[in-house]
Amino acid sequence: MMKIMIVDDEVIIRTGLATVIKWDELGLTFLEPAASAEEAMERIPVEQPDILLTDIRMTGKTGLQLAEEAREILPSLDIIILTGYDDFSYTQQAIRQGINDYLLKTSRPDDIIRTVLRAKQRLEEKSHQHNQEQLARRNHLLEKWIIHGEPIQEQNELEELQLLNPDSQAQQILGYQVWMITGSGWNESPKKEKLLSFAIENICRELLQCETFIQQERVIVLMPVPHMQDERERELKLRRNEQAVMKIKSMLRCQLNVTIGQLVHDKVHLHDSYQSALHIEPYHRLINDSIIRYDDMLLRAGAPTTCTAGHEHQLITILLEDDPLSLKTWVNDYIQQHLAHPQFTLDSLEAAMQHVVTIVNQWLTRAQQAIDRASLYPLSILFRYSREMEPSVCLFQYIHSVMKMYHHQLASSTISHVQKAKSFIESNAELDLNLQQVANRIHIHPSHLSELFKKETGMTFSDYITQQRMKRAAQLLSTTRLKVGEIANHVGYTDVKYFSQLFKKDTGITPSEYREMTYQ
Q1: How far apart, in whole angstroms, are the C-alpha atoms of residue 266 and residue 419?
Q2: What is the pLDDT of residues 223-277, one digit of tens each?
Q3: Are 235 and 376 within one domain?
């Protein structure tokens, strides 16, 4: 590991930096701090630190003098100036002397960590500069193999990679997993986000016996899974690895998402493990777990994908009222209820959303037919959802567009009052509607609506309401197992006997007989 030496004549600074930051977890060996530049110069030739973190003003030689003399002994030494003086002249002089970075003593621990990690990154880049082409080729081969699934067949390429080859003393390997790790929280600039990925990768290599590479700001970890006779012992080992990775969250003060792919028993199939991890990655946007495992998700049976009749009725009422705020609340509640189910899956979520889309389009079809607009407008609107989208936002936008389209049609002056009334009635077949309610909805006097209705349809308003209720009841009888009494109540009748009489009058048979003939 790289070594870091701190030089400061203030004991509180030396002690604080020694205890506040866990240097070993950053992949650094922490050398005993030096109390002066003179002490540091005696020790540097022997201990040969890689990073020097020194105060500027000290008793005796200054930090800048120390930097100059230390560089003569160790030309590759990375030097960070730490000072309590926010004086630009010191910064200028430090830059002229090739100081690599500059920090105030008032800097927070996470700022110091980031600065030291930058120093470590600079050193590693320098040490690998002579074989940058080889490193780039290695990452290209890994991406080709793991990400794109292109087999590596050339012997020289296989030898070049030499991946996940345990030494002779290592435990026998059961298989391999691809872990995808993404971090966030250093988003002040793209450069810092890139640095975060580097820091995560660097610590993973230190904490775990694994291979890593970075692909699109994700750290891809190729994790060997040890073979153990005791299944519980192996599971415990895996959980320790997960806990080790999650330490990075507190070490780097960032948010962390870990996605663990399926176990494959031969490393040639690591692309399959990567694909399985990629498949479940969208769960991170839906559940509050930092670690998502493919095996856990595979066991889920899926949540129910249909909404209740009450929810459906509530949605249609909102659509008719053209109420965007209530619609947003309904959609959010519906999605959250699905996500709260312990067995929900990405597939069941999509199916639940599609169920609502079907309800909305069936409503739109009925409503358009009632106002004779089906031939002018599409009976359905294509619903597009990608797992990268926020489901509640996507579903709300879709339903809202359908709602607006319908009300735009309904506002047309060419649509008669009777057509508007029929549209409202057919969309509310299960409600206990009356003439006053419908007239109020379309802004017309009840008596006038009654006259227009009889004139245009040839039947009374009451007869039309009954006809629509019977249609709805027939649909429920043929498609559900609801009891006759429940269906009667659903379409607006509390008296089951009276409902049955009306149904027989309309269809010629009783509700029970109709169900026996038509239920599928």
Answers
A1: 67
A2: 888 887 777 887 888 888 888 888 888 888 888 999 999 999 888 889 999 999 9
A3: no
